[in-house]
Amino acid sequence: MDVVTIVGVVVIAIFSITSHEAAHGFAADRLGDSTAREAGRLTLNPIPHIDPFFTLLLPLTLLLTGAPFIFGGAKPVPVNVRRLHNPRRDGALVGAAGPGANIAIALGLMALFALTRALGLPADSHLAQIASSGIFINALLAVFNLIPIPPLDGSRVVQYFLPPSALAVYQQFERFGLLIIVALLLFAPQLQRPLLGAVTWLITAMATLFGVQSEFAGSGMN
Predict the structure, then answer these.
(1) Which of 21, 38, 174, 215 is catalytic?
(2) Residue 66: pLDDT band by 50, 70, 90 thresholds?
(3) What's the average model confidence in pLDDT over 168-194?
(4) Residue 164 lies in a domain
(5) Is residue 157 part of a domain?
(6) Residue 66 is assigned to a structural domain of this protein
(7) Of 45, 123, 127, 195, whose Cβ has the fewest other Cβ atoms within 10 Å?
(8) What pLDDT is recorded for position 37?
(9) Domain containing residue 118
(10) Tens digit of each residue's pLDDT (9 = 90 or more) over 79-129
(11) 149 lies in a domain?
(12) How far apart are the first and last CA of the chain?
């Protein structure tokens, strides 16, 4: 990638991570919990969302250890589940809002990629490369965060369907969740295949929706 493309991809990545966290806050605010708004987190400004571990240390560690992909995140938006109108149901909706925002961004970027093909721009043009890279970043953010390991968003969705006895046990894993996630990323490469497989499936589904499956596969990002 040249400098223009790299800058474009970095901007998309920052916007995508920030939008993910802001979406949690906006959803919670609409469902009765104003904690994120009171903490100044209902913003697309990336600075309030920076987390020393997920935004800086984790991506650097994955880069230095030669991981097959670089992943990071932002500081979790504060949510007080007790303030939600319907804590169990709304907690699941707030959890799903982040991955939902990333899927929406990926769909928007896929529409942009389809436009570059309709205009006859080459697959290696700045716009096509930035769009395709942004699609992969957002698909990865959505799929990764839907893994049902606390405190990832997928665990918030799963908790809605668990009976009280199982829920109490499941919530105990949250204190070890970050350690489990990092350990799986670094020391269980065989588990990375289904993750990347799910990302590929999601991207292929979006490309098919816009009728650019073969063109997107040819771009080298799928």
Answers:
(1) 21
(2) low
(3) 77
(4) no
(5) no
(6) yes
(7) 45
(8) 94
(9) 3-143+177-218
(10) 999 999 999 999 999 999 999 999 999 999 999 999 999 999 988 899 999
(11) no
(12) 16
